[in-house]
Amino acid sequence: QVQLVESGGGLVQPGGSLRLSCAAAGNIFRIAVLGWYRQAPGKQRELVARITNSGATNYADSVKGRFTISRDNAKNTVYLQMSSLKPEDTAVYYCNLKASSWADYWGQGTQVTVSS
Predict the structure, then answer these.
(1) Predicted local distance difference test score (pLDDT) of residue 102
(2) H/E run at residue 84
(3) Cα–Cα distance, 70 to 77 (Å, whole number)
(4) Cα dihedral angle (64, 67, 69, 70), rounded to 10 degrees?
(5) What's the confidence (pLDDT) of residue 100?
């Protein structure tokens, strides 16, 4: 079993920045693909960014150039640096760790609200 704990969400003005963190307890972090997803009210959960165990990344078109995902295997932590935030980025953000079809874990979510 792997526990994921997100932090760093909050209220920020449009154009501002936030950094989300997700700390994992478990010994499969290094081999896992890590992702950040988000779910806005009334919408489906969507992929925001993903990073493989070799460091390859991919992003949703809506966040390219504004968000950066990174991982620190020594700290078992994945980050999402969010800049130039827009009101449409408002959502609950979830961390995901997937090491296999049966090792697929989610955090509890952290609220990000972009509003003036």
Answers:
(1) 87
(2) none
(3) 9
(4) 120
(5) 87
